[in-house]
Amino acid sequence: MSNTPSKKIKKPPMQFVNWFEIPVHDLTRSVAFFNQVYGIEMETVENGEYAMALFPVETGVGGALVKGQGSTPSETGVLIYLNASDDMTTMLGRISDAGGRIIMEKTLINADAGYFALFVDTEGNRLALHSNK
């Protein structure tokens, strides 16, 4: 079996992520966590059995916290790197205060790629922060 696609895409996407969803058990608790860490106000939308809280975004990749069937938080699996802008240190300080835990402190990737840190949110999801400084 070959890893080569059968047809080449004429123009591959510039960004490979269009949307992300972070699964939660307790939407209210998770919204409070991310509102505190980022200093934002998330909008909550309910649709039948599902509820979402949207990360505010004007351009670029958007995402949401999602509660509903099949949305199970986990410390294993896909790892999402969230933008920490230029102030990762301040955001890391807010994680514990908001009920999360840091599992890897701010770490240099390299001079060109910047820094990352790993944390677990209030729902048990392993996530990362990324910044250039």
Q: Which features would summarize this protein structure in a list?
A:
133 residues, 8 strands, 2 helices, 4-stranded mixed sheet, globular, 2,3-Dihydroxybiphenyl 1,2-Dioxygenase, domain 1
Which SSEs are present, and which pair or pack?
Elements: E1 19-23, H1 27-38, E2 43-47, E3 50-54, E4 62-67, E5 81-83, H2 88-97, E6 101-110, E7 114-120, E8 126-131
Parallel strand pairs: 1-4, 5-8
Antiparallel strand pairs: 2-3, 3-4, 6-7, 7-8
Kindly summarize this structure in a few lines.
This protein is of the alpha/beta class and 133 residues long. Helices cover 17% and strands 35% of the residues.
- Averaged pLDDT, please? 91
Residue windows where pLDDT falls under 50 for at least 5 positions: none
The largest beta-sheet arranges its strands as 1-4-3-2
Largest sheet: 4 strands, mixed
Helices and strands, in order, run as: EHEEEEHEEE
Could you tell me the number of beta strands? 8
CATH H-level superfamily title: 2,3-Dihydroxybiphenyl 1,2-Dioxygenase, domain 1
Rg (CA only): 16 Å
Output the CATH class name: Alpha Beta
Helix coverage percent of residues?
A: 10-25%
The CATH topology corresponds to 2,3-Dihydroxybiphenyl 1,2-Dioxygenase, domain 1
Helical stretch tally: 2
Structural class: alpha/beta
Amount of beta strand: 35-45%
- What's the number of structural domains? 1
- How far apart the termini lie comes to 42 Å
What overall geometry do the principal axes of the alpha carbons give? globular
CATH architecture: Roll
